[in-house]
Amino acid sequence: MHTYLRAIGFRECKNRQQLEDIYRHTLNTPNRKIMTTISVDTSLLQFEKDFGKNFGLSLVGEYDIKGSLSIEHYFPYLKGDRFMQFENITIQKQTDKESYAGVCEDYHLGMTIIFYVINIADYAKSKWLNYSNRQITKVKFSALSVAGTVLLGMHHSKHQIAVESKGRNRRNQLLDAARNGDTDAMEQLTYDEMNTYTSISSRVIKEDVLSIIDTSFMPCGVECDHYMVIGNIYAVEKLQNIYSKEIVYNLLIEANGLMINVGINEADLQGEPKVGRRFRGEIWLQGVVTI
Fold this sequence. Notes:
By secondary structure, the protein is α+β, with helices and mostly antiparallel strands. The protein has helices spanning 16-28, 120-128, 158-179, 183-203, 209-212; strands spanning 32-39, 42-52, 55-64, 69-78, 83-93, 100-106, 111-117, 136-145, 148-151, 216-219, 226-240, 247-255, 258-265, 269-270, 278-289. It is built from 5 helices and 15 strands. Strand 5 (83-93) and strand 6 form a beta hairpin. The longest helix is centred in the middle third of the chain and has 22 residues, at 158-179. It holds the Pfam family DUF3881.
């Protein structure tokens, strides 16, 4: 059973028979069926069934020359609605099945972002047509979560917003300069990091850490595409799974400059999500890449 089925409204799916019913429903009434050649005698098939607005279940399998279809794996998905632009996004095949991980460097965030590629068949088709060598730069991020908490937002005055924006722009300029080999920029960044560490260390003694940190985006656990996030909520959609009738929230959050749509079951979310508040939880990061 997939851990994140509950995130799209299948919280009560607890045995193989219930999953088989959802399987058959997806195979018999898919919203999208994408077929592409991956070898001389084999085609890749991806079925997508929407069980609500922008979320559902995807089945991926192979269709051979004898007309036999074998489903290789399945995964729940939520599709994002905001494009993020990067210098380059590389796609790497996962070894055990026909699935892919997207990898992009966010130099301003200072880390490598890894996500699960939703549009598997689209990328497989680009490989077969020899388009995969073209540079990929755009992705719509989304994520699923099985446990989250709503936090109060942090109030920022216009002056604070202006100061933070100026500081962020300055840091980005220093990072760009450091990437080009500017040693002065490297030293300044190191000095700034030391000052930040000293400031936070003294504040955390008297203040709660959640009142100091506005947003965060950090790798979590052993899975490379799992992250612990704290993000400002920009939009809230309350949706219903048309099959199970369970309620699913689609939260558009901003975490360290990344815009991500997060899907979570109403039963797994503590607190009432509202614009201006914050979401904290572990997420499985997904993305639809533009090829």
